């Protein structure tokens, strides 16, 4: 069987909200999908290469860099701080939070541990917001993400001092977080307007 020469199709974009249209040059039995499971993309996926970079904004690398920075801040910088506190206050594993029976400096150790835990608790929300908003506004998402991370470093350092009130030094993180949240809400409203028409 001789393969049919196919005319090149228009570039595909996941962002297009148009009805499915077969590319030119397909045989008659392939002109419309019989069901969604056998769409044109699924039938041709083995023969074509979809480059991920073509589906993302050109500046999405900044978002990836911000995510990498978040991992370094939370899993390296802050983890080292907790390890140093364990050593300084002689808190053994698997103790998560120390009591007076563990060490006389249990409050100072617990401040460091709680600072790290709080930052980790908020990390999934941060990742979800920075990645989702970065799909449309990569520079804004990255800048807001870096402000958030700088605030979290200040928060961790302040809380780790042993004085829980000093955690408020990390308030600038909310500027980054609220920017990401506002951007996500704007994207949701824009999407609702498109489908409301």
From TrEMBL:
Organism field: Haematococcus lacustris (Green alga)
Reaction equation(s) it catalyzes: leukotriene C4 = leukotriene A4 + glutathione; 15-deoxy-Delta(12,14)-prostaglandin J2 + glutathione = 15-deoxy-Delta(12,14)-prostaglandin J2-S-(R)-glutathione
One Gene Ontology cellular component annotation held by this UniProt entry: mitochondrial outer membrane
Pathway participation: Lipid metabolism; arachidonate metabolism; Lipid metabolism; leukotriene C4 biosynthesis
Transmembrane segments: 60-80, 126-151, 171-189
Name of the protein in question: Glutathione S-transferase 3, mitochondrial
Keywords assigned by UniProt, alphabetized: Lipid metabolism, Lipoprotein, Lyase, Membrane, Mitochondrion, Mitochondrion outer membrane, Oxidoreductase, Palmitate, Transferase, Transmembrane, Transmembrane helix
Uppermost EC category: lyase
